[in-house]
Design brief:
It is a single chain. This protein is an alpha+beta fold. About 20% of the residues lie in helices and about 40% in strands. The longest helix has 19 residues. The protein binds ligand LBFN2T5F. The site of ligand LBFN2T5F has 18 residues, from helix 2 and helix 4.
Length: about 280
């Protein structure tokens, strides 16, 4: 049976969105998600996102499969895409536009809100810093600027969870990082029992960072929203940046703020690419 989908992207981090509002069971299996995400034999995407019915008073539930079929807890660019997808569906069905959604995720309730200029600001909740919450077996209650041996070299890493795990390293030149070679070694390093997303950050100014990312379950992507949030937190913890900064990724820029209330706010775009159906 053919299943309808719409593809969206947030700064080139691209997702296949599926209207799953009629059932709590995702319409695709992880193996189907792998096939659909394939850039040569499938539709091509970094992941598949299912818009499911809400739970415990939320408007909707988001579930996501990475392009390798694994299921992450959260996705920052993905949740902006899901908000745009829901707004497009609801506006077509009812003519009404909902400005804000409360969405249940495996990382808790996340709230995207449309700005008057069309951008979407997401209340991403509070970062988690305890080593046990990342999770990582690196020593210390929190992992801030700690050495980690990867590919025969010692890297100073800071670990932050935005519901999903991130390992951040500050470097002089992000362009010089051999991401394809070292990304998988970080992702599968034994100190990360649930694998990790890995971000390399170059501080251009205290309010402007450049980032490249190797994503758990997806490899090199053009942007990672949770990664940008985690990197700003790491920058503040290491006294390298302000609490609000622009993060430049290969696919574009995100505005990230670690507000006085302890929560992280991420602002950026989400855009529809095309719709179709596939069996
Ligand atoms: N691209 C996403 C993160 C998607 C999940 C990640 N690959 C993981 O496994 O944690 C983002 O924009 O946050």
């Amino acid at each position: 049976m053919a299943i309808e989908f719409t593809k969206y992207h947030g700064l080139g981090n691209d997702f296949i969105l599926i209207d799953n509002r009629a059932s709590t069971e995702p319409k695709l299996t992880p193996d189907q998600a792998i096939a659909w995400c394939d850039r040569h034999f499938g539709i091509g995407a970094d992941g598949v996102i299912f818009a499911l019915p809400g739970q415990d008073g939320t408007d909707y539930t988001m579930r996501i499969f990475n392009s390798d079929g694994s299921e992450p807890e959260m996705c920052g660019n993905g949740i902006r895409c899901m908000a745009r997808f829901l707004a497009d569906l609801e506006t077509a069905e009812t003519g009404k536009f909902q400005e804000k959604y409360r969405i249940q995720t495996l990382a808790g309730i996340i709230t995207p809100k449309f700005e008057s200029n069309g951008q979407i600001t997401v209340d991403m909740g509070e970062p988690r810093l305890l080593a046990s919450e990342i999770p990582t077996t690196l020593t210390g209650e929190k992992v801030i600027d700690q050495p980690l041996e990867v590919a025969g070299k010692s890297w100073n890493v800071t670990c932050v969870s935005m519901g999903n795990p991130h390992c951040i390293t500050f470097v002089d030149d992000v362009a010089a990082i051999e991401l394809e070679k070292i990304g998988p070694l970080f992702e599968h390093h034994p100190v990360f029992p649930q694998r990790t997303n890995t971000e390399f950050i170059e501080v251009v100014r205290s309010d402007y960072l450049k980032m490249r990312v190797w994503e758990r379950g997806a490899g090199i992507t053009l942007a990672c929203g949770t990664g940008a949030c985690a990197s700003l937190v790491a920058g503040v913890l290491n006294e390298k940046c302000d609490r609000r900064a622009t993060i430049e990724l290969p696919g574009g820029c995100l505005d990230i703020e670690w507000a006085a209330d302890g929560r992280i706010y991420m602002t950026g775009d989400a855009e529809k690419v095309f719709s179709g159906s596939r069996s």
